[in-house]
Design goal:
Layout (H helix, E strand, L loop, with lengths): L4 E7 L6 E7 L1 E4 L2 E7 L11 E7 L2 E10 L2 H15 L19 H10 E8 L4
Antiparallel strand pairs: 1-2, 1-5, 3-4, 4-7, 5-6, 6-7
């Protein structure tokens, strides 16, 4: 499962409590992974960039997490992910995107109404 799930560990922005949750991820490039989330919940902690830890493919990695919430920007990033990785790249059924073709912009916007993207920029530091 480590090819699809990572363990995200972070401090709650308001509570200060430490949370560790499994999250499906998408490799964007060697230094960045993405995760999708609903418009509520854990992703709200990353409205401002925050330091997190990821257990990614068996390695403990430090990263900076930032939530992308703007509807148009989320739609563009979804389209770019599909363009780069292919129509079946987005495995999250909650996104509601077609898996057999590239989504129309309206479909990407509808998906952006339901979710946000967390961008995790991986640190070179151990």
């Amino acid at each position: 499962m480590s090819g699809r799930l990572m363990l995200l560990t972070y401090e709650g922005a308001k509570s200060g409590r430490t949370y560790a949750i499994p999250v499906a991820y998408y490799r964007w490039d060697p230094d960045e992974v993405w995760a999708f989330g609903a418009r509520t919940g854990w992703m709200s902690n990353f409205r401002s960039p925050r330091a997190v830890r990821l257990l990614l493919r068996g390695r403990d990695v430090r990263a900076e997490a930032t939530a992308v919430e703007d509807r148009e920007q989320v739609a563009r990033l979804l389209e770019e992910l599909v363009q780069r990785k292919g129509p079946g790249a987005i495995r999250d059924p909650y996104a509601g995107l077609p898996r057999d073709r590239h989504p129309w912009h309206e479909e990407a916007l509808a998906a952006a109404d339901r979710l946000r993207i967390a961008r995790f920029r991986l640190s070179a530091k151990p």
